[in-house]
Design goal:
238 residues; mainly alpha; two-stranded antiparallel sheet; 11 helices; 2 strands; 2% strand; globular
């Protein structure tokens, strides 16, 4: 029995990590001839695809990242039913795979969409509540990074409490690993907020205002090509 549990944990970790490593944002950037980590916000994730490629592509990447995490958690649950903590183990593994993919020098995305997909697979009711909380936090703060970092810390507590009879607090401790990783990956965002160099969420519907704030010139009268300089300041790259 113990050996079966160990095998289940190892398979869950490997499955979650390898699925998490699939970075659609990175692949889209490569297809367009650039490394997405060297453009826009410098992040290999859906939000940077919106900045560098467009809203439709960014939405597609976000859906994909949510789905891959949901898929990984569901698959391991089907393979090894009845082991409660495996859901949290797989969730952490897929998030870490997204953040630290081995073939990208362990420099991937920031894990929020993968966190969302994991929460959706674990409990859709908690997902809906946290989705509303994320939207509220982001709109109030006008910075995207406050949403994922706040929710990544809130979710383990909520999940631990809701499933406390099944060992939820142990699952919460496991999920805190992902929360720490997500907060760590957003450290540059908080630095840029302090320095006034972070794109605001209102960028999605008022791109010109952010372009004016950063001194970015448009190329075609409609779009504004944002690039990240080495000092972390977003500017137009000549």
């Amino acid at each position: 029995m113990r050996s079966n549990i160990i095998i289940a944990v190892l398979v869950s970790i490997m499955t979650g990590y390898l699925v998490g490593c699939i970075s659609l944002s990175y692949l889209i950037g490569r297809l367009k001839g650039f490394d997405i980590r060297e453009h826009g916000s410098g992040n290999a994730g859906a939000s940077n695809v919106i900045i560098t490629v467009g809203k439709k592509a960014g939405a597609f990447v976000a859906i994909f990242d949510i789905f891959k995490a949901w898929f990984a958690v569901k698959v391991t649950g089907i393979l090894f039913p009845g082991i409660f903590l495996l859901g949290s183990v797989t969730a952490v593994a897929v998030i870490l795979g997204h953040i630290f993919p081995f073939y990208m020098g362990f420099k991937g995305g920031k894990g929020f969409a993968s966190l969302g997909g994991s929460v959706l697979a674990l409990d859709y009711r908690i997902f809906l509540v946290l989705l509303i909380a994320t939207i509220f936090i982001v709109f109030i703060s006008n910075y995207v990074c406050f949403g994922p970092t706040s929710v990544s810390l809130i979710f383990p507590v909520v999940y631990g409490y809701v499933y406390r009879e099944q060992g939820g607090w142990y699952a919460a401790l496991i999920m805190l690993i992902a929360a720490v990783a997500i907060c760590y990956r957003h450290r540059e965002n908080f630095r840029r907020i302090r320095e006034g160099n972070e794109l605001k969420f209102s960028f999605l519907w008022n791109r010109k205002a952010e372009a004016d704030r950063f001194g970015v010139e448009n190329d075609d009268g409609f779009s504004y090509p944002f690039e990240m300089e080495e000092d972390g300041i977003i500017k137009h790259k000549e």
